[in-house]
Design a protein that fits this description.
With about 190 residues, the chain is mostly beta strands. It is built from 2 helices and 11 strands.
Length: about 190
């Protein structure tokens, strides 16, 4: 083997060893049967009311090596479930979610913050009733593992934030009915 071929082989091997391997971003699709955004607020100081949305869709993209990601969630606000049909209609009315004009709420991330191998917060824009405000979701748990039934890679997480409903033109009865609304989301997503 001549010196040029040997030198080329050595350079190729050195380049291959010195260049780190990068994982490609992985896309996960929201599992709508196990993803439920919930919201709670004070009702005249008497109790904390808990409700949820039954229909959620979207995607989560993670690059575990680069420690980056994105989250894109769509919530069907007509699927609000307060546990009482009259209140469902009340929450969907113009004074609150106005689902006739705004049948969805969205969250689009601007940054995913990691600590070690797990996301700890997701910064992004929340849009309710056509009003967009920045929010930070604090991730309280995160798991990435093979789904035991589907035999596909899956992720699961819980995250929370607090918003003011008056910021989203949904402030009727505030402050008697609490302006602060805690949003908790339990999410599961399957790798595509």
């Amino acid at each position: 083997m001549n010196k040029f071929v040997k030198l080329s082989a050595v350079l190729a091997l050195a380049t291959a060893v010195s260049v780190p391997a990068f994982a490609a971003p992985e896309t996960y699709v929201i599992d709508g049967s196990h993803t439920f955004p919930r919201f709670s607020y004070s009702h005249f100081g008497l109790s904390k009311q808990l409700s949820r949305f039954d229909k959620t869709s979207g995607t989560i993209v993670l690059d575990k090596e680069a420690k980056t990601g994105s989250v894109d969630i769509v919530i069907d606000t007509t699927s609000v479930d307060t546990g009482f049909p009259v209140f469902n209609g009340h929450i969907q009315g113009a004074d609150f979610l106005d689902t006739t004009a705004f049948p969805t709420a969205t969250f689009k991330s601007t940054k995913v913050v990691f600590k070690g191998d797990a996301p700890t917060e997701v910064q992004g824009d929340l849009t309710i009733k056509g009003v967009t405000k920045p929010v930070t979701l604090t991730v309280t748990s995160f798991v990435a593992m093979p789904h035991p039934m589907l035999q596909k890679d899956a992720i699961g997480a819980n995250a929370t934030t607090v918003i003011k409903r008056t910021d989203f033109n949904a402030g009727k009865y505030a402050p008697n009915v609490g302006d602060d609304v805690t949003i908790d989301i339990a999410v599961e997503a399957i790798k595509q």
